[in-house]
Design goal:
Belongs to the amidase family. The protein is α+β, with helices and mostly antiparallel strands. It is built from 17 helices and 17 strands.
């Protein structure tokens, strides 16, 4: 049975679009049909911009037929987390306070994707103000995991995980401050890339925590993530954190080989207190890379023992500064969980915050030393499987633990350091996907995407349809 157009990847669709074998209009129609079928159940979209998408598809078709093909994203439908601005369109930030907010300008990443010929299918659901990891949004409803609709999608970019996983878009763009790209990507069984801090402009994105925020792609494959990154990476003088570095053709760095690659494994932190079945799945994935010629080395990063403290102090302090005035004037307009976190963020002192920044510096030094010895670090993306919607606790090897205390343990250190990290599906436990996180030195996105791409090609058996899709056929 051949795949429907909306089920295909950028890598599959782009050559067919370029050769005029298929039309962007047909792809958009297939995506919108899937949205109509599934969004009521999964709640991935806050807003579906169907008319806009059809107009853009017709324009793309006309351009391509006239010989003006722009590249791999031309005519490709994408959806955007509803925290990234489009000029003169509502961007809600998943909130009540900003439910009618309209920006006067496009975010830099929106401009770049528009120039690449992307078609925008709508605005994706998120945890309120991106401040949470469940996407149980009190204003727009929870996102539901397509592998088990009673479970969370993960957050804050829940809609951005659900939409590509359930083929309600071809790819998505979203933010990551403590794991918000990688958490829902892992829980929903797709690829999620958090680029190096400063590689992708954040201009035109409502902040959660200035020094930790990143923008990156969530896609069906590693190669698709490379294509999207090629379009959005690059220096932007409008973003004070933007860094002027060369941006290669990341898709051309996918060699399909890991022979001689030195993989670092940190047992003390990243394989400590992990669900036993999740751990087994990730270790088996690493073993398959070793069989392909990779070399496994144990590494030590002592400052990781302080990473959770540094991440939490930094994120709550910066987030509460951003929302301070609204917390005073409109406290009751925040959801309960976000209000609690914002109040919590008013407590740390300047001493606490600056101590956290010293930990960041030490982590940065130790990771640089580590990457002198290995090429990549591989970890579980998350320590457990997604809990049921509404649960604040999760079972971890038979022990009931607080969800929030553990959810960013493995992702947060790379927001603190700004290092690039990608999660790729590496197996299943109880028919739920498990993610493997691959981390590299700064600006080595091509390297980590190559590992992810190589793993995908080694394991085509991992390509399965989520339960929600099976039930919709």
């Amino acid at each position: 049975m051949s795949k429907r157009l909306n089920e295909q990847t950028i890598s599959e669709l782009a050559p067919l679009i370029e050769s005029k074998q298929i039309s962007p209009v047909d792809i958009v129609d297939a995506v919108l049909e899937q949205i109509e079928k599934l969004n009521g159940q999964l709640n991935a979209y806050i807003e579906v911009t169907a008319d806009k998408a059809r107009r853009q598809a017709e324009t793309a078709e006309a351009e391509i037929l006239s010989g003006n093909y722009r590249g791999s994203l031309h005519g490709i439908p994408m959806a955007i987390k509803d925290i990234i601005y489009f000029a003169n369109e509502v961007t809600t930030m998943g909130s009540k306070i900003h439910q009618n907010f309209k920006s006067s300008y496009d975010a830099t990443v929106v401009k770049k994707l528009t120039q690449a010929g992307v078609i925008f299918t709508g605005k994706l659901n998120l945890h309120e103000y991106a401040w949470g990891a469940t996407n149980n949004n009190p204003h727009f409803g929870p996102c539901r995991n397509p592998w088990d609709v009673e479970r969370i999608s993960g957050g804050s970019s829940g809609g951005s995980g659900v939409a590509p996983a359930s083929h309600m878009t071809i790819a998505a763009l979203r933010t990551d401050t403590g794991g918000s790209i990688r958490i829902p990507s892992s829980f929903c069984g797709i690829v999620g890339l958090k680029p190096t801090h400063g590689l992708v402009s954040k201009y035109g994105c409502f902040p959660l925590a200035w020094s930790l925020d990143h923008i990156g792609p969530m896609t069906k494959t590693a190669k698709d993530a490379a294509y999207v990154l090629e379009a959005i990476a690059g220096y932007d003088p409008k973003d004070p954190t933007s860094i002027n570095v060369p941006t290669p053709k990341y898709s051309e760095e996918l060699t399909g080989s890991v022979k001689g690659l030195r993989i670092g494994i940190n047992e003390e932190y990243f394989f400590n207190n992990v669900d036993s079945e999740v751990e087994k799945t990730v270790r088996n994935a690493i073993l398959s890379l070793e069989k392909e010629g990779a070399v496994i080395e144990t590494v030590n990063v002592p400052a990781l023992q302080y990473a959770e403290y540094a991440e939490m102090i930094t994120i709550i302090s910066e987030a509460s500064t951003i929302h301070h005035n609204n917390l005073i004037a409109r406290e009751e307009d925040f959801g309960d969980d976000v209000r609690f976190l914002l109040k919590l963020g008013e407590i740390p002192s300047a001493v606490d915050y600056l101590q956290a920044q010293q930990i960041r510096l030490q982590l940065d030094r130790e990771f640089k030393e580590m990457f002198n010895k290995v090429d990549v670090l591989i970890t579980p993306t998350l320590p457990f499987l997604p809990p049921k919607i509404g649960q604040d606790t999760v079972l971890l090897n038979g022990n009931e633990v607080n969800f929030l205390d553990h959810i960013i343990r493995f992702t947060g250190p790379f927001n603190l350091t700004g290092l690039p990290a990608v999660t790729v599906p590496c197996g299943f436990v109880n028919d739920l996907p498990v993610g493997m996180q691959i981390v590299g030195p700064a600006f080595q996105e091509g390297r980590i995407l190559n590992v992810a791409d190589t793993f995908e090609k080694l394991h085509p058996e991992l390509k399965r349809s989520p339960v929600a899709l099976q039930n919709s056929i």
